[in-house]
Design a protein that fits this description.
With 341 residues, the protein is of the alpha/beta class. 42% of the residues lie in helices and 19% in strands.
């Protein structure tokens, strides 16, 4: 029997362990070729080790190259850096990817939404480079380097080409931030002109772009954004298709990839068995597709297709969790997917 791919499982906090268990159960039922090693991050790690992101967890991801992460909580106002920001910086996960698609069985105001948000993950205001100048003055620094801007532009156009997408649109505010957003937009323009003329390219000032998104999201395909803009727009577009509970997420670098639920840990419903595992399940499908592409494993492709077909069928049949208007709990939804594999 062929060896399985070893990956790190980070259950996270709040509803994280519940949705993680459900997803692992579905993956096992679908014969996904993954072998897990479990590690902690967030509040659970803080209580066990005194750190929100222990070195042992980082070391494990570096050894395996892959991780699936549930939602993690970082204590606010206590001096701890965000688990997500630490992971991205320390593993150089510079490309955040969030596919946003309409799902049959999840009715919204919009139909036929099919977007991919690609976000530069290491620079910009979101990186948190702040300093206090005086008692009443704080400066936040927006850092943009040509190398990082060029790197994410290459990544986005290569992704669009590999996935047979038609267009990349850069959202920016270069009319005001002429240097930082200017270098981001110019890097994308040059990469398009010199290396990827096969992909249509356009840019839009971000406020006007957001207005166009809510008017008609089908006019866009792949959106490329700097860090903070990407954080905001990825959540905005999730709202077009039903919210953070129905969209997956992944963070890629040259060596490592971390797939995650993009919603929060929802401590108010933790332990009640009502959380929706779909977002993390969809992220695990992204992981399987990554394994199939990077490691040429047809087993991963087969498992991915089976899971995607099964959860689409369950949603279409009205077998949904309460947040989507259904009546199923976490484990019941997992059972419904497994029954349709």
């Amino acid at each position: 029997m062929a060896a399985k791919h070893r990956a790190v499982l980070i259950p996270g906090d709040g509803i994280g362990p519940e949705v993680t268990r459900a997803v692992v159960r579905i993956l096992e039922a679908a014969a996904a070729p993954i072998e897990w090693t479990e590690h902690l991050a967030g509040i659970a790690a803080l209580e066990a080790t005194g750190e929100v992101l222990p070195q042992a967890t980082l070391d494990a991801v570096e050894r395996r190259g892959l991780a699936l992460k549930g939602p993690c909580t970082t204590p606010v106002g206590k001096g701890f850096s965000s688990v997500n920001v630490q992971l991205r910086k320390r593993l150089n996960l510079y490309a955040a990817v969030r596919p946003v698609r309409s799902l049959e069985g999840v009715p919204t105001r919009y139909e036929n939404v099919d977007l991919v948000i690609i976000r530069e993950n290491t620079e910009g205001l979101y990186s948190g480079a702040e300093t206090r100048i005086t008692d009443d003055v704080v400066i936040s620094m927006k850092v943009a380097t040509e190398s990082a801007c060029k790197r994410i532009a290459h990544w986005a156009f290569r992704y669009a080409t590999q996935r047979h997408r038609r267009k990349v649109t850069v959202f920016h505010k270069a009319n005001i931030m002429k240097m930082s957003d200017g270098i981001f937009m110019q890097a994308a323009e040059r990469v398009h002109e010199r290396e990827y003329p096969n992909i249509e390219y356009q840019d839009a000032i971000i406020d006007a772009g957001c207005m166009k998104l809510v008017q008609d999201p089908t006019q866009f395909d792949v959106l490329l954004l700097e860090n903070l803009y990407g954080d905001v727009v990825s959540d905005l577009t999730a709202g077009l298709v039903g919210g953070l509970g129905v969209v997956p997420g992944a963070n890629f670098g040259d060596e490592y990839a971390v797939f995650e639920a993009v919603h929060g840990s929802a401590p108010d419903i933790a332990g009640k068995g009502v959380a929706n595992p779909l977002a993390l399940l969809m992220s695990s499908v992204m992981m399987l597709n990554h394994i199939a592409q990077e490691r040429n494993d047809e087993r991963a492709t087969a498992s991915s297709e089976r899971i995607k077909t099964a959860y689409n069928a369950a949603l279409s049949a009205g077998e949904k969790t309460r947040d989507l208007g259904g009546e199923l709990g976490t484990d019941q939804f997992a059972d419904a997917v497994i029954a349709r594999l």
